[in-house]
Amino acid sequence: MPPSGVDSSKEAVTLTEPEHVIRSASGSLHHPRRHAAASTDDYVFSQLIPYIGNKRKLLHLIEDAVHLTGCRGGTFVDLFTGSTVVGRWAKQRGFRVVANDWEPYSHRIALGTIVPNRVPAFAGLGGVKAVFETLDRLPPLHGYVSKHLCPENDDHPDLERERLFFTRENGERIDAIGERIHRWSQDGRIDEVEKAYLLSALVYAVSYASNTSGVFKGFHHGWGGKTGTALHRIRGRLALQQPLIHDNGLDNLAFRGDAHDLASRLPVACGCRPEIVYIDPPYNQHPYGSNYHVLNTVVLWDKPEFHPSFIVNGRKHEKSAIRKDWRTERRSPYNTPHDAPLAFDELVGSLDARWALVSYSTDGNIPLRDLLLSLARRGDVRIVTATYKRYRVSTPRMSDKPINIEFVAVVDLDAPPCPDRVPHLEHEILQHEEDALARSED
Asked: Given this model, what pLDDT does residue 25 score?
């Protein structure tokens, strides 16, 4: 079935010269109440982790871009799958999905919720219902998470020494569930997809119950911070729910690797030349590996060494307990304005697919003209744009520019290059931004 709000009979948009930049008029496919991750029965949005840059509010833009290609099926490669929302949307839309990300938590979510077309059998453990009941009944376990990421006493935490990522009660539940999942895996009682399915549920539960605003580079000072926000989830009992699965009847794949490596060998990795490659690289300086380090610790269960307190010898030390492997194994060139343009140019230059869709913003590390030139050297480029309110931590910390333009570039990789069109494309996108800013000030 198509995603909520999508007209599956809608014809592919046909553009005539000079309509190379289209302002999307489609309504959002995401409705905050109907698609709340904790309660919705919509596969695309169910148990979707809170994630900076995820495209749940911009799926209409991607929908419009896909219609420009005319593709109604085939292989859809999501090179930077992140929260997996775009991959899920493509799967529900009828595409065979190949999802990739080098962050372990993202790969596990994709392997557990995009690859399978039915809920895993868990034949060695009595079925999926028995597995979730077993995990729910486990006694508390004082282990790595409760020792390093939680206070000793939930009612009287030491805010000057202890990490408060989770209540101790929930930390001991994470320890118990994590240990049991990894023991089942080591004993051969669950396969990799079954393990990923369980870890997908655990990753969402960990995100939901965390004493954060969704990012793990820090935690609230006290439960819920000064205002005691969201205590129902932070202090509530952590519980796993079975992730929803959608059956597209196709052989979906999940890879954990460098997008550049996969891009250079798409036909081999996918078993065919993909119809669409969707590219959504990091926009800014904040690495996902440090923002979501706790999620990686949960899926890897490798227990990196940290002092239980963030005060060592009278000084603050590793307050957020950020694991260090992202620096050596997963440092992204897209997080720096110096490296991002060349990395993007190399990525686009290596693609072997029918169409490329590229999500980006007027606020990204890659200058707009550089990005458009890289794309225009590969084929015919058209753009779908939408106004987007910028991410803000709080109202008092409002940015100078409250909105930006999010866009999806649609590149026909079989068409002749169009570098001469870049100034026009750039002008139209920036004009859209100028118009939107003027309206926001009215």
From this structure: 62
| 88 shares a domain with 71 | yes
DSSP state for residue 26 in the 8-state scheme: P
Q: What burial class does residue 113 get, using C-beta atoms within 10 Å of its C-beta: 0-12 exposed, 13-18 middle, 19+ buried?
A: buried
DSSP E strands, 73-128: 75-78, 96-100
Is 410 strand, coil or helix?
Answer: strand
Residues 130 and 238 placed together within one structural domain of the fold:
yes
Q: Are residues 321 and 393 in the same domain?
A: no
Domain limits for position 22: 1-118+250-287+334-442
| DSSP label at residue 274 | -
In terms of Cβ atoms closer than 10 Å to its own Cβ (0-12, 13-18, 19+), residue 124 is: middle
Beta-carbon count within 10 A of 218 CB? 15
- The parts of the chain modelled with pLDDT lower than 70 are 1-19, 25, 390-401, 442
Same domain, 41 and 139: no
Beta strand spans in 369-420 (E): 380-389, 403-412
The order of strands in the sheet holding 21-23 is 21-23, 380-389, 403-412, 355-361, 276-279, 75-78, 96-100, 253-255
- At residue 316, what are phi and psi to the nearest 5 degrees? -65, 135
| pTM, 2 dp | 0.92
